[in-house]
Specification:
It is a single chain. The chain is mainly β. It has one domain (about 10-15, about 35-95): 10 Kd Chaperonin, Protein Cpn10, Chain O (Roll), CATH 2.30.33. It has no helices and eight strands. It has strands spanning about 10-15, 35-45, 45-50, 55, 65, 75, 80-85, 90-95. The strands form two sheets. Strands 6-7-1-2-5-8 form a six-stranded antiparallel beta sheet, with no helix packed on it. It has a two-stranded antiparallel sheet with strand order 3-4.
Length: about 100
């Protein structure tokens, strides 16, 4: 199943947080928070502007982004949880 986001929506695969701290301490699952970073899998064509043109998305496939803790809608694709968010819900782009 392939999902193509519409309008200004972005399909993100959340990146799991580390289960071990830098000092070597393993964190239990109950201590881990919902991931707030993810990799862009696909983007929609962009928001339709008043003049009939589309605003090109600021992110592209493969970008690592930060999003709000409760942003978007979770969907499952081939057994893997993904998130669909509006571009305005993205908080930032992580430079590599």
């Amino acid at each position: 199943m392939a999902v193509k986001p519409l309008e200004d929506r972005i399909l993100i695969k959340p990146v799991e947080r580390e289960t071990q701290t830098a000092s070597g301490i393993f964190l239990p699952e109950s201590a881990s928070e919902k991931p707030m970073q993810g990799k862009v899998v696909a983007t929609g064509p962009g928001k339709l502007l008043d003049g009939g043109e589309r605003a090109k998305p600021a992110v592209k496939k493969g970008d690592l982004v930060v999003f709000g803790k409760y942003s978007g809608t979770e969907i499952e694709i081939k057994g893997v949880t993904h998130l669909i968010v509006r571009e305005s819900e993205l908080l930032g782009l992580i430079a590599s």
